[in-house]
Design brief:
Length: 169
């Protein structure tokens, strides 16, 4: 399967996209372009020869210092918030289940965040998992839940840099 990524625009037919997660599908079909126009989120679509196979959104974010594990927080400056990037929504088409497209989407998101982090600092990358299955997906890729919000997970940007470097060798 050959996948290409593009920023969402009016040419992408979102009407038939189905991930199996109604909230994600609804947002993608009805509000994604509005969020993008308003600069609330940047939305990327993954396409194959048949159409959209997945999407994800990115936004800047902050993490409160006191929400991080103490082992990390004590190594950081005493700012009230630490810069982060947020993968706000990520979904793959039902027709691609079992093909690994979720990991492909996440890796592309990582690369986009790290490219932006060359200009704008991001200490960590956050996700809000919609359910327990999504929590397991992210945890299998190195994300850790924040104690106060178990469905909000994070991974350090430096961890992603190291993992991507190791995988390209």
């Amino acid at each position: 399967m050959t996948i290409r990524f593009e920023l969402l625009d009016h040419q992408h037919d979102r009407r038939s996209f189905q991930s199996g997660a109604l909230q994600l599908d609804d947002w993608f079909k009805t509000r994604a372009s509005q969020d993008q126009r308003r600069r609330i989120a940047q939305v990327y679509v993954a396409l194959d020869e048949h159409g959209i196979v997945g999407f994800y959104s990115l936004s800047m974010f902050t993490i409160s210092l006191d929400s991080l594990p103490a082992s990390l927080a004590r190594k950081l400056p005493r700012y009230s918030a630490i810069p982060a990037a947020s993968i706000g929504r990520l979904a793959r088409a039902e027709r691609t289940q079992g093909t690994g497209i979720g990991g492909v989407l996440l890796n592309h998101a990582f690369r986009a965040i790290l490219a932006a982090a060359e200009s704008i600092a991001a200490y960590a990358i956050l996700v809000d998992a919609k359910d327990e299955k999504a929590v397991r997906f992210y945890q299998a890729r190195g994300f850790v839940a924040l104690a106060a919000q178990p469905n909000r997970l994070f991974i350090l940007a430096e961890t992603v840099v190291s993992a991507l470097a190791a995988s390209s060798k």
